[in-house]
Design a protein that fits this description.
This protein is 16% helix and 24% strand. Strands 1-2-4-3-6-7-5 form a seven-stranded antiparallel β-sheet, covered by helices on one side. The protein has two helices and seven strands.
Length: 161
C-alpha cells in the first residue's frame, strides 16, 4: 500500500481495486468523520468495516493518523462491535504487508472462540491502544479491559466470516 497513488481530488486516481474504500468514502458527506460499511466480500457476510472519512497520506496508515482521531476511530469501532456482538466482539487491523485496501479500515466482527494467544498487551481503553507499526492488531474485551494482540500481519482471521 505504500505505493498507492490515490488522490481524492482526482477521481480517476481512485480506479484501482486497492482504492475501492477511498472511492466508497467519497460517497459520504465530509461532516461524517467515521463511517461504518458492511464488508463487500461475499465470504464475510458478518463483517463490518470502520473507516475514517478523511484520506490519509500515502498508504492511509492508522499510525499516520492524529492520535486523537485514531482514538475516536478505535472507540467508534468498539462501540459498533459491542452493539452488534455484545461482549463477544473482536476488531482487527491487518498489517502493512498484507493489506489489500489502501484506505485505513478496521474489521469488526464476532471473535472466534478459543482464539486467545499469549502475545498481547492489556489496556484500559481505546485511548491506550498504541499506534500500529507495520504489524497488525486484533483487539477484544477481557475482564473490563482490552487485550491488544500484536506481532501478526493477517489479523482479521480471528473474526467470524
Amino acid at each position: 500500500m505504500s505505493q498507492c497513488a490515490c488522490d481524492a481530488a482526482k477521481p480517476e486516481s481512485l480506479a484501482a481495486r486497492e482504492c475501492s474504500l477511498c472511492r466508497e468514502v467519497e460517497k459520504y458527506p465530509l461532516d461524517s468523520p467515521i463511517l461504518f460499511i458492511k464488508d463487500a466480500n461475499p465470504s464475510k457476510p458478518n463483517r463490518w468495516l470502520a473507516l475514517p472519512r478523511a484520506h490519509g497520506p500515502v498508504g492511509h496508515r492508522l499510525a499516520n493518523m492524529d492520535p486523537a482521531e485514531r482514538t475516536k476511530l478505535w472507540a467508534a469501532a468498539i462501540e459498533k462491535a459491542t452493539a452488534v456482538w455484545g461482549d463477544k466482539w473482536g476488531i482487527a487491523y491487518n498489517g502493512d504487508k498484507v493489506r489489500t485496501q489502501c484506505h485505513a479500515h478496521i474489521h469488526i466482527g464476532k471473535l472466534l472462540p478459543g482464539i486467545e494467544t499469549s502475545q498481547f498487551i492489556v489496556v484500559d481503553g481505546p485511548d491506550r491502544i498504541p499506534a500500529p507499526d507495520v504489524d497488525g492488531f486484533w483487539i477484544h474485551p477481557q475482564d473490563g479491559k482490552l487485550h491488544v494482540h500484536t506481532g501478526e500481519q493477517i489479523t482479521e482471521t480471528v473474526l467470524l466470516r
